[in-house]
Amino acid sequence: MALFDMPLDELTAYRPERTEPPDFDDFWRQTLAESRAIRMPTRYTPVHAELRAVEVFDVTFSGFGAHPIKGWLILPRHRAGRLPVVVEYLGYGGGRGLPVEWMGWPSAGYATFVMDTRGQGGASTPGDTSDPGADESGPQYPGFLTRGAFDPRTYYYRRVFTDAVLAIEAAREHEAVDPQAVVVAGGSQGGGIALAAAALESTALAALIDVPFLSHFARAIDITDEEPYVELRHFLAVHRDRVGDVFRTLSYFDGLNMAARSKVPALFAVGLMDRISPPSTVFAAFNHYAGPKEIAIFPYNGHEAGSSYHVLSKIRFLTDLGLAPRDGQSEAGGK
């Protein structure tokens, strides 16, 4: 692996023109309103009592179309008052996995809410959520990136981004969570979802966006042969007559257009040798980002970027924003 994209001085200035449909805001306003109007109650079921330092809840919340979406809520067992919560979105193909895989934020005193990604969970970590909307999606290339891509109303990520916003609302419902202190976070696909959530749910207080996928589609499919972007290229090679329809659909979900609407403080991360989320696509979103922002640059890393080396930077970033949990050792229960 070696540098293959623009030099860093060009990346820091790279701000490509955005292609945005005129009804972008109305589309998302209506999409969210429809699912909010039929929301079902969130269920929090205590599980894994053997994990003595944390409390774990198996969550089922109402997502797009009132579809049941799974998640985990994990709380430090000893806490003082309500906790800031980090809502975590997952990388491509992965599911919510097991609670023991999500101890990082609770170990720093935060609540963490892990959203299962509908239909995924077979590539790396197991998932537990189906995608009922797939029945109406039409033809696709294997994977998720082209599912329903002829029309924004049937596109897979319309359902996922709606789930992401409703996950924030579900996390706020738990009595141990401070509803005014929500952070959205994720890497790769999860970074793209966090970017969208920050745009569509403006009451979040911060965003942690690592190597975001789903940004600047047009450039990504031109410069990388890596999955998942190559799914789009294979699909367009077959559906030659629908290229315009697909790119119109993607414009409703492109991280460039989400970034222009995201105003919460954000910390990005990028690996300059990343062929999965090419650096120019990450910087394109970062440079269009409308809120206060910082970016951590890892010159000799690929899609892993900062990985565990970046965790403390994210904690410090939240602390500087006043989003550190309160100190204390009081025993607290959950509902």
Report on the architecture of this protein.
With 335 residues, this protein is an alpha/beta fold. The chain has a single domain, classed as 3-Layer(aba) Sandwich (Rossmann fold), CATH 3.40.50. The chain has eleven helices and nine strands. The protein has a nine-stranded mixed β-sheet, sandwiched between helices. Strand 2 and strand 3 form a beta hairpin. The N and C termini lie far apart (49 Å). The C terminus is likely disordered.
Helix content: 25-40%
Helix and strand composition category = alpha/beta
CATH architecture descriptor: 3-Layer(aba) Sandwich
Give the domain tally: 1
State the distance separating the first and last CA atoms: 49 Å
Question: Which helices and strands appear, and what pairs or packs with what?
Answer:
Elements: H1 8-11, H2 24-37, E1 43-47, E2 54-62, E3 68-76, E4 83-89, H3 104-107, E5 111-115, H4 156-172, E6 177-187, H5 189-200, E7 206-210, H6 217-223, H7 229-238, H8 243-251, H9 255-259, E8 266-271, H10 279-288, E9 293-298, H11 311-320
Parallel strand pairs: 4-5, 4-6, 6-7, 7-8, 8-9
Antiparallel strand pairs: 1-2, 2-3, 3-5
Helix pairs in contact: 2-4, 4-5, 6-7
